[in-house]
Amino acid sequence: MNKQGYLLMVEDEPRIQANNKKILEREGYALRQAYTLAEARKIMEEEQPRAIVLDIQLPDGSGLKFLHELREASNTVPVLVLTAMGTKEDVVRGLESGGDDYLSKPYDPLEFLKRVQALLRRASTIPDTLTIGRLKLDIPSDTAYIDGEDMCLSQKEFALLRLFIQRPEKMLGADYIYEKVWGQEMAGDENALRTIVSRLRKKLTDSGYTIAVERGEGYVFERE
């Protein structure tokens, strides 16, 4: 059975690529293969994959750096990280970089298949749009609207609004927001976050919602 969309496998080892291809194609998944990060980027420019199976050590760079770039760009494609480095620290580093799951080599073929299937099930529960009041967010295109009018948000503004809409009326700390939107620790400098919040608040004018600031506590997305 052919499933809609394709899975992108980024792996430089031909034997592993061949084995994974056999496992997934037997289940009817459409696949595209990349042996370098450059090839992966070129493929993704053409079409967004349903999920990515990503090796960490690649000839032209780190898979974790590539993953971090995706999350920095607010790309939420689910990623299964594969690596020969399987220490606890490696696992934590992979997940902190934005990985959705982590599997150490060598691995059981059935476990690999089940991990991919679980990743796709979780991804299928993520809606393409988020709506609250007069606001609507189109997730695939990173575009937000007020009554159908494009808010012209930057990637960071869109990521921030998406985070707020998913947690309305909840106090969110600056450190938490920064880590979710920027994909890294804030390290004490809140100026970048304040700037984005200020810009987003202006663009929310007449939307029925605003961002309240509680000094020393955090930010709340609430009705005006």
Key terms for this structure?
224 residues, alpha/beta, Rossmann fold, Arc Repressor Mutant, subunit A, four-stranded antiparallel β-sheet, 8 helices
Question: Any overview of this molecule?
Answer:
The protein has 224 residues and is of the alpha/beta class. Helix content is 41%, strand content 25%. The chain has helices at 14-26, 37-46, 63-72, 88-96, 109-124, 155-166, 174-182, 191-203; strands at residues 6-10, 30-34, 51-55, 57-58, 61-62, 79-83, 101-104, 129-132, 135-138, 143-146, 149-150, 171-172, 209-214, 218-223. The strands form four sheets. Strands 2-1-3-6-7 form a five-stranded parallel sheet, sandwiched between helices. The chain has a four-stranded antiparallel sheet with strand order 8-9-10-11, covered by helices on one side. Strands 12-14-13 form a three-stranded antiparallel sheet. It is elongated and about 55 Å long. The mean pLDDT is 86.
Q: Structural class, judged by helices and strands? A: alpha/beta
Report, as a whole number of angstroms, the end-to-end distance. 50 Å
CATH class of the largest domain: Alpha Beta
In CATH, the homologous superfamily of the largest domain goes by the name: Response regulator
Please name the CATH topology of the largest domain: Rossmann fold
Proportion of residues in β-strands: 25-35%
Summarize this structure briefly.
With 224 residues, the protein is of the alpha/beta class. 41% of the residues lie in helices and 25% in strands.
